[in-house]
Structure formats: C-alpha cells, structure tokens
Amino acid sequence: MNQASEAMIEPYTLLRASLSLFKKAPAELEQLQLRQVEVQAKNEYEIESRVLSSDEAAGVVVSDIEVERAYQEISGRFEDEDAFLAALAANRLDVGQLRDALRRQCKVNTVLERVAARAPKVNEVEIGIFYHSHPEKFHKPEQRSARHILISINPDYPENTRDNARRRIEEILETLKRKPHKFADLALKYSECPTAMQGGELGAVAKGVLYPELDQALFALKEQAISEVLESEIGFHVIQCLKISPAETMSLKKATPKIQQIMQDRYRRNCQRTWLASLPAATRSA
C-alpha cells in the first residue's frame, strides 16, 4: 500500500481493521496484510457513512460523556499518557482526531442498536422448535476426571527401553496400590508427560478423547480406582478415575434463556443486515 493510497483511509478505521484482522498496528504488518486491512477499512468506512447518512441517524446525538467513556477505555490500556500519545502519533492520530472518530463510532453503534431493536421477539413456539431441532446442543455426554502417569518407550535411552519402561511403571503401580493418595506426587516425580507438573491431571474428558487403550480403561473404572498398566503408542501408563460426571440432557426450561438469547441475537443481526442492504450508497463526505 503506497503512501497516497494510505492517506485516503481514515486512520482510526485503518487501525481498527488492522487490530481486528491481525491484532497488530498497521505499521507492524506485511505488505499483503496491509492490503487486506486497507480493503476492510474502506468497506467499513463506506458502510458507516451509509449508516450516518440514513434518516435514522438524523436524530441521534452522542453525548460528551459517552465519547469520554470510550476515550478513557482506550487510553487506559496504556502504561501512561506518553505511551498513549506515542501510539496515536504512530498511527497518524492525535487526541482530537481520536475523539472525533469515537464520536462517529458511537453514533453508528447507536443507530444500529435502534435498528436492531425493531427485531421481532422470540416466542415460546420458536424456542421449542429450536430445542427439539438441535438436541446435540443440549446433551452433555458422560465425562470422567482423570490423571495418569506415563513412562515413554524410547530405545535410544537405556532407562526407556521397552523392558525397562515396563519395569519402571510396574514399580510405580505397586507403590500406588499401597499408597493411592501418592498418585499426584508420583506423577510429578516420574511421569514423562507434560501433565506431570499438574500431578498428572488430564481434566474432565469424554469418550474418544484419549488414546483408545486409556479411554477404554478409564470408562471402565469406578471413582478413585486405579488401572493396571496400560500400553499406548507412546508408552506405558497408569490412569486413575477421580470423578464420574454422568451424561445429562438440559431440560427445555433450563435451556430456554440460552435459546432465547441465541435466536434474539440472530433476529437482531438479520434486521440490521436487511436495513443496511436497503440503504443507498453514501457520498464520501457523509
């Protein structure tokens, strides 16, 4: 993007698009990324201009308090005022330009919120249809909280040859049979899995997440029970089932607030899209 082309784009919109797409300021982007940001920024500015040229925008007034709140939210992300002002300057902005851009954004947001408020309210019949049409969204499979100890097989290391790895895990299992409460300590000391730092904890898992050998053993164990030695493609394991959380299906009554929110948001977005599509193209000065 050359300097003349960049100058045509409102700096705040360019910065906002850059952060949205790549979480970086425009100056930190590669050339191809800059072109993508430029396209998005121009599109966003054109849409905002159409919104601000609409009849709905005519009566919208943004208060100084609202602008100040938005300004403080942005400036508060920086260590101090000098760092904030330096960041503005690096993006071809000053305090006045930022406040003007924020006032414009607040006005656009207010108009779109008013348009979204026209969306129809979700009724009970629609909620029921959604619930019965998407059962997978409201069913939680059985989960088991577990922890394990891994001794890997690696013939390049004497202690991890197949025979030695098997011997080591069996010794650990014998200790666990006498002192099951030592599982986390033994995992921290001996396990070769990154989970060792958390006492071997795998968290809550559903069927099909772990290696098949571990999966089958875990879902056959009772709470607090410890498996025999298990072998997977990466080595030998001992696994413990800490807690069983049975499968459950959320009732329609319990799911209703979630469904209502999902559908209402969808109606609001559809209402905004339909309205935006009906707007005439705005002039550059809008």
TrEMBL record:
Claim: Signal is one of the keywords in the record: yes
Catalytic activity: [protein]-peptidylproline (omega=180) = [protein]-peptidylproline (omega=0)
Keywords attached to this entry: Isomerase, Rotamase, Signal
Domain PpiC: 141-243
PROSITE patterns: PPIC_PPIASE_1, PPIC_PPIASE_2
Listed NCBIfam families: nifM_nitrog
Protein name (record): peptidylprolyl isomerase
Origin species: Methylomonas aurea
